Amino acid sequence: HHELLDGTGYPDGLRAGEISDIVRLTTIVDIYTALIEQRPYRVPFTHAKAFATMEKMEGKLDMHLLYAFRPVTFGAY
Questions:
Q1: What is the pLDDT of residues 13-45, one digit of tens each?
Q2: What does the alpha-carbon distance between residue 4 and residue 16 come to, in Å, rounded to a whole number?
Q3: Minimal CA–CA distance to 51: which of 75, 62, 72, 35?
């Protein structure tokens, strides 16, 4: 769940076509969760700030899946 579309992720440095949809979605969920949860080194992001941050990751994240994920999370709060 740390592979990014541009090949800069890990552990295998996979690129877009090599990354399955489930891994793409898991990456989005993992990053989102990391942003909105309390961390010892920072306060949690708001849901809006988390998505704004992730939207800046175009080229790294699957934007179609990110935009499909957004209403699910905002609808839950």
A1: 999 999 999 999 999 999 999 999 999 999 999
A2: 7
A3: 35
